[in-house]
Design goal:
Blueprint lengths: L2 E6 L7 H14 L4 E5 L7 H4 L10 H5 L5 H4 L1 E2 L6 E4 L10 H11 L5 E5 L6 H7 L4 E6 L3 H16 L5 E8 L1 H4 L3 H12 L3 E6 L2 H9 L8 H13 L11
Parallel strand pairs: 1-5, 1-6, 2-4, 2-5, 6-7, 7-8
Antiparallel strand pairs: 3-4
Helix pairs in contact: 1-11, 5-6
Bound molecules: adenosine-5'-triphosphate and magnesium ion (MG).
């Protein structure tokens, strides 16, 4: 049975899609059958990040309209043999939380990890979908607005009964966060109120790679952070290191 992981944030642009791509890639490279479901209706981007912009034949829209079965609409991501993508439709399509939950249920047995990219903007559907996940990864950057929004978001999930949450702090650089890195990360964790699972450095090499649809280079600091988070998800103890 797969573990359903929802990647979400209060504020837009925190790096949810990048994290889905990076985490999906490392989980797959570590041997786990992984599917990413993209819910960014009308604004999909993972096809570009995986270099598949011109090769996606079907997407979630075909499933919702009944034209395709879920597995028929799933595309294999060429850069990692265990990685698969169910792209968001290019147009705005109406969807209910029940439909997404049913889709996940119907394919649970085929994947060890199903990662849901909740997309930009928060509406009640997103809350309904995310609260069904086995684990919610709340993404924040060190930005104060982002931290406050992540905290509000997380409180809402707690209120709805989903206590399985972990925090990812993304786009961290010594330049932004100052010299007392640990104290500052602690402050972010306290403000959001969610246990930390990983810190991802601000990494230009990764932005260039995902922009071109190339695999994240092996010397990327962000890739190392994704690798550690993927292992922690799998139950391994990996100490926190930060080299940016
Ligand atoms: N760790 C990082 N280092 C450098 N750039 C990053 C990092 N994470 C994300 N980015 C960049 O930040 C921008 C926004 O990232 P992304 O699209 O993943 O955010 P998002 O949360 O999915 O946005 P949206 O809310 O619009 O869906 C992109 O240009 C991406 O390359
Ligand atoms: Mg996104």
């Amino acid at each position: 049975m797969s573990k359903i992981i929802a990647v979400t944030s209060g504020k837009g642009g925190t790096g949810k899609s990048t994290i889905c791509a990076g985490l999906g890639y490392t989980l797959a490279k570590q041997g786990h059958r992984t599917l990413i479901i993209e819910l960014d209706f009308g604004l999909r981007c993972l096809d570009i990040m995986f270099g598949m912009e011109n090769s996606i034949q079907c997407d979630l829209g075909d499933v919702l309209s009944g034209k395709k079965k879920v597995l028929e609409a799933v595309s294999h991501v060429p850069m990692a043999s265990n990685l698969n993508l169910l792209s968001a439709p290019k147009t705005l399509t109406s969807v209910t939380a029940e439909q997404i939950v049913d889709i996940c249920r119907s394919i649970k047995k085929y994947f060890e990890y199903i990662i849901i990219d909740t997309g930009a903007g928060i509406n009640s559907h997103v809350f309904d979908i995310v609260e069904q996940a086995n684990l919610i990864l709340v993404v924040s950057t060190p930005d104060q607005v982002c931290i406050r929004d992540a905290s509000l978001m997380s409180d809402e999930f707690y209120n709805r009964g989903n206590k399985s949450q972990r925090l990812i702090i993304n786009k961290v650089s010594k330049k932004v966060i100052g010299d007392s890195l640990v104290a500052n990360l602690d402050e972010i964790i306290d403000k959001v109120g969610v246990q930390l699972i990983g810190v991802i450095p601000d990494d230009f090499k990764m932005t260039v790679a995902t922009g071109k649809g190339n695999p994240i280079p092996t010397d990327s600091e962000a890739l190392r952070a994704f690798d550690a988070i993927a292992k922690r998800l799998d139950g391994d103890f990996v100490p926190l290191t930060f080299n940016n």
